[in-house]
Design goal:
The protein is an alpha+beta fold and 120 residues long. It is built from 2 helices and 8 strands; from the N terminus they run βαββββαβββ. 18% of the residues lie in helices and 48% in strands.
Length: 120
C-alpha cells in the first residue's frame, strides 16, 4: 500500500514530562539524539508498528500536539499538489541531514499533516 503513515511526532511544551508520561504508559524505548543548539530530538522505538519522535515545541506559546507523517515518493511534487488542492504550506520542503525530506501542510479544513521522503 502506498502513502502509509510512517512516523508520528510530538512537539511538546515539556519534553521531560512527556518522556516520563509515555514511557510509564507504554512499552516504548526512547533514544535521545542531539540536533544542535543544545536541543534534543527523542526517537520513539515501538517494536512492531510505526514509531516516531518527540521534541521541544519549536513555536513558543504553541500547545503540545501530535503530528503524523505520510510516506511520499516525491516530496516536492506532493507538497505542490497539496497546495494546488487548497492546503496551506506550514513548512515547505526541508532536508533532514542523512535521513530525508519533510514538509508540513494544513488541509483545507485546517488539519495538519506531515509528508516524508527518505533519502535513497
Amino acid at each position: 500500500m502506498s502513502n502509509a503513515f510512517v512516523h508520528v511526532e510530538l512537539a511538546t511544551t515539556d519534553l521531560n514530562k512527556a518522556k516520563t508520561f509515555y514511557t510509564s504508559l507504554f512499552d516504548w524505548q526512547l533514544e535521545d539524539m542531539p540536533v544542535g543548539g543544545g536541543e534534543t530530538y527523542t526517537m520513539i522505538r515501538v517494536g512492531d508498528g510505526t514509531g516516531g519522535g518527540m521534541m521541544k515545541h519549536p513555536m513558543p506559546g504553541a500547545a503540545s500536539a501530535w503530528l503524523p507523517y505520510v510516506l511520499v515518493a516525491d516530496i516536492k511534487a506532493a507538497t505542490a499538489k497539496a497546495k494546488a488542492l487548497g492546503a496551506t504550506i506550514k513548512r515547505d520542503v526541508t532536508e533532514v541531514p542523512d535521513a530525508g525530506y519533510l514538509s508540513i501542510v494544513a488541509d483545507p479544513t485546517g488539519a495538519t499533516l506531515g509528508m516524508w521522503q527518505p533519502k535513497k
